[in-house]
Amino acid sequence: MNSYKAPVGEMQFALLDVLEAESQYAKLGIEHATRDIIEAVLEEGARFNEQVLAPLNMSGDEEGCGFDKATGQVTTPKGFKEAYTQFTDGGWPGLTAPETYGGQHLPESIGALIKEMIDAANLAWGNYPLLSHGATEALKHHGEEWQREVFLRPIVEGRWTGTMCLTEPHCGSDLGLLKTRAEPRADGTHAISGTKIFITAGEHDMTENIVHLVLARLPDAPAGTKGISLFIVPKIRTARDGALGEANAVRCGSIEHKMGIHASATCVMNFDEAEGYLIGQPNRGLNAMFTMMNTARLAVGIQGLGLIERAYQNALKYSNERLQMRSLSGPKAPDKPADPLIVHPDIRRMLLTCKTLADGGRMMALDAAMQVDALERSTDEAERRAADELLGFLTPIVKACLTEWGVECTYHALQCFGGHGYVREWGMEQLARDARITTIYEGTTGIQALDLLGRKVIQLQGAGLKQFLGRIVEFCSAHTQNAELAEFIAPLAQSAQDWQQLTLEVGKRIMADPEELGAASVDYLFYSGYVALAYYWARAVAAAQRKGDAELFQRKRGMARFYYGRVLTRCRLHASNVLAGAGSLMELDAEAFAA
């Protein structure tokens, strides 16, 4: 009963009208990313996701993955492999990859919209090609030319997929503790030995080969994160000329039984002197891996966005059809025995929360993706540096906020269904279960918050934040005489000033007591996310006004009014928590928690 229709119109509005992507593409020399091409790509992406992937979402969750302990082989649910064949036949794996290696080299911001469709249609299926994009980026930026020819090209074609092997049983986010070993061999390869856990799509039956990018230590490596190197370890041994040999000494030991994403294989991978190739410089593996991780963090943020959109669509449909009680102000459907749910204020509160966070979050995620485009394609060093700073600042906000909002909104949508939302047949409980992992993998919300406040704001002296605040100031200045935007300009300008003051205050506190960083970071991150969306919503109203479409303007203004009146106000709570300090968190000894 749960369905999905790609919001192509909203996507085009966000990318082309609000963010004015066409002008940036032209500036970057991306001649083939014209409006008609973009519209065609989105329409075809919508068809594939609505007709092929979405119908497999519930059945895949019910069936789950199969695992043969004797062989270590994983089988995906019925229809998944066939859907992947259609995915590769359509050229989707290479949508944003370089033409040199068989890709179409469209902007990452267009790829982000296709990814949102995939995640909304079938999040678990989307995990199989998910890390291939990160592997592409790592190989593109850090691999030798022969490695790109041998490993990147088949990934771009979709014949192979990629993984990212970081976590080990004894260490999660603290990669300095990892123990996987890499022993050099006389032929220039390395023997990789160790166990990695929580490896998404570590084993499956969709492709002939899987390219694992594995963090490991060389024998003479220094301790901690400074002694980590990155290695290419294919499932099937692959020679330097691309010839495939026998199975490599890497095997799936088990798959996890999870709360959600049952159709996505989360694997324990055992490496027993598996043949691998060093990628990048020795002991500099984190540099290459962070290329993958940052790409993956944006991608996971988009997973949260996709889940919000699908949950909202189904809750909206149900709320329009389900009859329940009468409106408090009198019957709205007097010819029916009761009014539809959507007449009730609290139902509208939940639906509008989902809608404003989804549409605002889409603009924010696309803006981050457009910084990737600028960083990758601009020939102006200053422009590339500015894009890198802004991208670094936005990445933890996109990842953490969109996934946390995904959890919130899938629960709001489920709540709209009442008891029917809690039972399996409507598909809403699956969306809520699937959403929960997104706040955890590729760095928990706490990790993203520490990255934002500790690194991007304090350590890097707020370079990206200053840019973003400058954008807000510039936007507000440009619209001071715009009467139709006045209700948004003044509170947005004030929010920017408050954000700056809060940052200065928390910075002083952190300098006096390092524990203040951990105490303030999560609330600071959410504060940042809500102010950022206020900026994007003001831009959306301005874009609707420019288009001269009265109905569109009225709709966007109404959404923005809700956001400013009922969501942006959350900043007060988060600011209060930031300023509450670390004292009440750190006062008690650990033993007191057990009393």
Which properties best describe this structure?
595 residues; alpha+beta; Butyryl-Coa Dehydrogenase, subunit A, domain 1; Butyryl-CoA Dehydrogenase, subunit A, domain 2; seven-stranded mixed sheet; two-stranded antiparallel sheet; 19 helices; 11 strands; globular
* Morphology call: globular
Classify the fold: give the CATH topology of the domain at 8-142: Butyryl-Coa Dehydrogenase, subunit A, domain 1
Q: How many beta-strand elements?
A: 11
Number of helical segments? 19
- Listing every helix as H and every strand as E from the N terminus to the C terminus, the arrangement reads HHHHEEHHHEEEEEEEEEHHHHHHHHHHHH
The CATH superfamily of the domain at 8-142 is known as Acyl-CoA dehydrogenase/oxidase, N-terminal domain
Task: Detail the poorly predicted runs.
Answer: none
Tell me the fraction of residues in β-strands, as a range.
5-15%
| Relative helix content | 55-70%
Could you describe the 3D structure shown?
This protein has 595 residues and is of the alpha+beta class. Among the domains are: 8-142, Acyl-CoA dehydrogenase/oxidase, N-terminal domain (Butyryl-Coa Dehydrogenase, subunit A, domain 1), CATH 1.10.540.10; 159-284, Butyryl-CoA Dehydrogenase, subunit A, domain 2 (Beta Barrel); 461-586. Helices cover 58% and strands 11% of the residues. Strands 3, 4, 5, 6, 7, 10 and 11 form a seven-stranded mixed β-sheet that branches. The longest helix has 37 residues, at 285-321. The mean pLDDT is 96.
